[in-house]
Amino acid sequence: MSAIIHGAGAATALSTFNFKTLVAPCRTNIPGRSKRCIVAAGSDDDASKSFGSSILTVRHSQKLIANAVATKADMSATTGTGHELLLFEALQEGLEEEMDRDPHVCVMGEDVGHYGGSYKVTKGLADKFGDLRVLDTPICENAFTGMGIGAAMTGLRPVIEGMNMGFLLLAFNQISNNCGMLHYTSGGQFTIPVVIRGPGGVGRQLGAEHSQRLESYFQSIPGIQMVACSTPYNAKGLMKAAIRSENPVILFEHVLLYNLKEKIPDEEYICNLEEAEMVRPGEHITILTYSRMRYHVMQAAKTLVNKGYDPEVIDIRSLKPFDLYTIGNSVKKTHRVLIVEECMRTGGIGASLTAAINENFHDYLDAPVMCLSSQDVPTPYAGTLEEWTVVQPAQIVTAVEQLCQ
Amino acid sequence: MATAFSATLPLHGSQENRLLLPPTRLAPPPPSSSFLGSTRSLPIRSLNHAHASRRSPVFAVQEVVKDKKKPTNSLLITKEEGLVLYEDMILGRSFEDMCAQMYYRGKMFGFVHLYNGQEAVSTGFIKLLTQSDSVVSTYRDHVHALSKGVSARAVMSELFGKVTGCCRGQGGSMHMFSKEHNVLGGFAFIGEGIPVATGAAFTSKYKREVLKQDCEDVTVAFFGDGTCNNGQFYECLNMAALYKLPIIFVVENNLWAIGMSHLRSTSDPEIWKKGPAFGMPGVHVDGMDVLKVREVAKEAVGRARRGEGPTLVECETYRFRGHSLADPDELRDAAEKAKYAARDPITALKKYLVENKLANEGELKSIEKKIDELVEEAVEFADASPQPGRSQLLENVFADPKGFGIGPDGRYRCEDPKFTEGTAQV
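Above: the input entities. Below: the structure tokens describing the complete assembly.
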């Protein structure tokens, strides 16, 4: 079994939190806020960074407004080492670094090789690593996912790309029965270190079948982990961590986030697969979100801050298992929870999260947990209808006002 | 894809006229294996012979065996090989019979699928493999595991659900795995194992071509006639031929998928013909004759090791018992059962060994006795083994148990002492 993770003490890490090579969560046994070794989009101890974690000095709403939104605002402010890139480039960088590091890492999927990936995540890799390491498969999700699992059982570390997460429905047999279960049914003899990744979520009028959110379908499968990336920083970090993990990991990306730009460190780093990310510390209400909804929440946060609220925004990142420590600490502080997700209302990630919070932190809640999810409808093609199926910032603002009454 | 033959072929001609060679091959390939070599003599028949008897493009192995027998006039196996084959088949049969007994005595539960009658296929193929070659099977996997080298003790304990089982009691009858002997399962849903086998073969190729290791490992995937109507089968035939993977697809056609006759569920019941449609040889062999199966297996395994790609082998075989121990087996015709019982592979091999003076009755009897004792001992061992404790419940769910996540107290759940007791909340 893996060793217990130890980390640096919280106190020392605060002001000098830079780009350490992070392999483990920084955890202490001191109660209260511990340091999360995550996001540091900017360089150093600039406490006003929206993605800085646990900086206790952040209090002034004036500073927060400017940084309450997506990273785009941060670009000019950053100095020091680091390079700027788009999210899909960050994924590619992470993948390429891992392929350089370990020759057993390979990629398989439709159009990943010569075409460079339908979202360009594997661009250039086939030229560099060859056609067998970056394998263009025929259109047979079930079979090539199973092939990846068989290859993982016999020593390789495949990264299986679903061109769209919706296509993984065709691979559900292999993911559920083999990916999740074989380690257990073989009594621990075989490990399945695969990464299954691909874009999902509602895009720009892609139609019902290409706009699916399958996180909820996979959550019950025992034996797999699910993570959702939302920024170039955590995209690269999670990609690398997922590849290095011995467990099968499903990495959910979002079609609309591939062109997000951010400055990320030059040094090597990975993000912890099981931890959530503190996006914006606050006092009044905890908003839990992931993937694209993070940006809707941050946009709503701008409005909320102007109205005098102080929301704490957490990107849960790890969809299975939930990081109940970060979430719990937040609930204990604010006593109000709003979950904002793009998943379907029925049986979605939000539904599970609501249950988990109620079960574990019921005594700390001053109001019922509110969950804003997408409507239980197939995503319509028409732009106006599509807009109404997902949660919009205005709805988030209304919900917060309602909860904070 | 247009080929030189398309001009002569009618669009909806009868099957005899369809050239069953892979369409990309305009000239017959050099005969590195007798499968491909024998197709050269196949004439393309004209429409007039539409109703002529079907000729296989790849000769049934009787022909292969005859060809081999003619020049040398020697036997197909040596004495040692014969005894190994005999012992393996006796082990398979005795073990399965003992399973039935134990099931009805309440020592094992659930779905148990027995392999009686099909031993020739398992023995014929697996006894040619090395330890590092992989075998993938279905739920009818006890004998595949035994042939590959997993001890009878480990398999019996697994069936009893004990800790000493090959999968620690967590898999059961349908999930026999062994890392040591490269048995990659044991799958409950049909067709599920074929992509996994394809992946194992992919790893062999990857090791050779990317990691530059000396790797000649082949993978043998066993599955039934019912699976051959499943999409995963076709998808994997395509990929295996496309990437020229070192894999052998072995169809154990026992004519029945529980109560569904193969002829009632398949538009073209000749499964071996589906191989050439994907660009690999398709071979049909009498699966009740271990020597014939072995000869075909030698060719197929040789092909795979040389890097020439996959082969589809259809073995005509029969299961003497029902689909599982819960199946009353009332649907199958008694005459059919009797016909195949007369072709019992063990009796056939025994006859061959005795007639060709490779072994005498006494030697064979002593093998049978030895196996009986082995199986008895396996049952005793399984009986005496402990049941899994509560602590085992949460182990092995994740290879890295951090996957259970971080609990409300800030520690990983796997660090919770209750985790090892199996009572932690996860």
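Note for the figure: The radius of gyration of chain A is 20 Å.
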